[in-house]
């Protein structure tokens, strides 16, 4: 989750998010080079008298500063497209979780098991405990096994919502009458937080998403306890 003084992205909890963080830093490096160059050029423009009786054209520099940006763009586009298609891929999932957005809570269905479904409401401020985070914790957390490919099916029952976990690099629109699909695998145990990311009404800010990532054997225990 985001903590104090965390200015940039959250630590990646999935391989895809790690790659996204690397890509973000890569693009930032290129931007830094461009802004430094432009700043240098602007300063030289101001400090020099830009007139010459003999220099009327510069074919070489014109060619260079047309081709160079194109090459730089390729260096951004290639890794970007690679990530785009990697995120779209669903690798033979071992578990499917369906999230349904409601005004204003999420409900979840573990379609691989019988009768394993529940609603997940935000814990209101009056019921806060030392261990819960304000506006982020839910009464029923999603429990998922770590290190296994998970397929998410996202939809909504009333208006548009968006199911988002920043540390997993997942953000999927929840649209009424439509099933959206995404996939991820969680690389470490822990609790992951997210919030609805589509302005969906008065309590849009109060329908958080909480995932408990646990080792597979704990997950099996949880499933058998829940389906009793
Ligand atoms: Cu919403």
Automatic annotation (TrEMBL):
Cofactor, free-text remark: Binds a copper A center.
NCBIfam families: CoxB
Function: Component of the cytochrome c oxidase, the last enzyme in the mitochondrial electron transport chain which drives oxidative phosphorylation. The respiratory chain contains 3 multisubunit complexes succinate dehydrogenase (complex II, CII), ubiquinol-cytochrome c oxidoreductase (cytochrome b-c1 complex, complex III, CIII) and cytochrome c oxidase (complex IV, CIV), that cooperate to transfer electrons derived from NADH and succinate to molecular oxygen, creating an electrochemical gradient over the inner membrane that drives transmembrane transport and the ATP synthase.
Subcellular location: Mitochondrion inner membrane
Pfam families: COX2, COX2_TM
Cofactor(s) the protein requires to work: Cu cation
Reaction catalysed by this enzyme: 4 Fe(II)-[cytochrome c] + O2 + 8 H(+)(in) = 4 Fe(III)-[cytochrome c] + 2 H2O + 4 H(+)(out)
GO CC terms in record: mitochondrial inner membrane
Originating gene: cox2
TM segment ranges: 27-46, 67-87
Record keywords: Copper, Electron transport, Magnesium, Membrane, Metal-binding, Mitochondrion, Mitochondrion inner membrane, Respiratory chain, Translocase, Transmembrane, Transmembrane helix, Transport
Start and end residues of each Cytochrome oxidase subunit II transmembrane region profile domain: 1-91
Subunit: Component of the cytochrome c oxidase (complex IV, CIV), a multisubunit enzyme composed of a catalytic core of 3 subunits and several supernumerary subunits. The complex exists as a monomer or a dimer and forms supercomplexes (SCs) in the inner mitochondrial membrane with ubiquinol-cytochrome c oxidoreductase (cytochrome b-c1 complex, complex III, CIII).
One GO MF term: cytochrome-c oxidase activity
Domain Cytochrome oxidase subunit II copper A binding: 92-225
Main location: mitochondrion
Protein name as it appears in the record: Cytochrome c oxidase subunit 2
Matching InterPro entries: CcO_II, CcO_II-like_C, CcO_II_C, Copper_CuA, Cupredoxin, Cyt_c_oxidase_su2, Cyt_c_oxidase_su2_TM_dom, Cyt_c_oxidase_su2_TM_sf
Similarity comment: Belongs to the cytochrome c oxidase subunit 2 family.
GO BP: ATP synthesis coupled electron transport
Membrane topology field: Multi-pass membrane protein
